Amino acid sequence: MNDSLMIIWPLLFLGVIAFFWFNKNQSNEKPDNSQKDVTLPLRLQAYERMTLFLERLKLENLVMRQPIDALSIMEFQGAILSDIRSELNHNIAQQIYISHDTWELITHATNITMAEINTAFGASKDLGSAREVAKFVLQNQGGESAKAISLALEQLKKEAQKLF
C-alpha cells in the first residue's frame, strides 16, 4: 500500500499540473474580443484615411489644391508630385491594417498617377503658364490613373464591408 501511494501521488500531481497547463494554453488560443475591440477602430480609420488619400490623388483634386498663378510650370509639377509623395508617406503605416493586395492597388494607382502627371507635363512644356498646363493636364488626362484609383477605392470598400 505504501509503495503504491509513492507511485500514485507523483502521477496525480503531474496529472493536475498537466491539466492546468493544457487549459491555460488552450485559453490563449481563443480569440480575445477585447483585442478585436481595439483593432476594429484602427482598421476603419485606415480604410477612411486611404479612401481620402485616393480621392486626393485624382488629377482634378491635385491640380486644384495648388496655387497655380504663383508657380512656374516646373514648380507646379514639383508641387503636385511632392504632395503625392508626402500624402503617401503620411499614410504609409496604414498598410498594417489593410490587406497586401489592397495596398498594392493603392501604390499602383499612385505610381500610375505620377507617371501620367510626368507625361502630361512633358507634353505641355511649350505652354506659357502653370494655369495653361493645368488646363491641358485636366483636358488630356489619359484615364489610366482614374481607372487605377477607382479600382483601389472599390477594393477598399469591399474589404471594409467584410468587417461588418
UniProtKB/TrEMBL annotation:
Keyword terms, alphabetized: Membrane, Transmembrane, Transmembrane helix
InterPro entries: DUF7935
Pfam families registered for this protein in UniProt: DUF7935 (PF25589)
Membrane-crossing residue ranges in chain numbering: 6-22
Name listed for the protein in its UniProt record: DUF2802 domain-containing protein
Source organism (scientific name): Lacihabitans lacunae
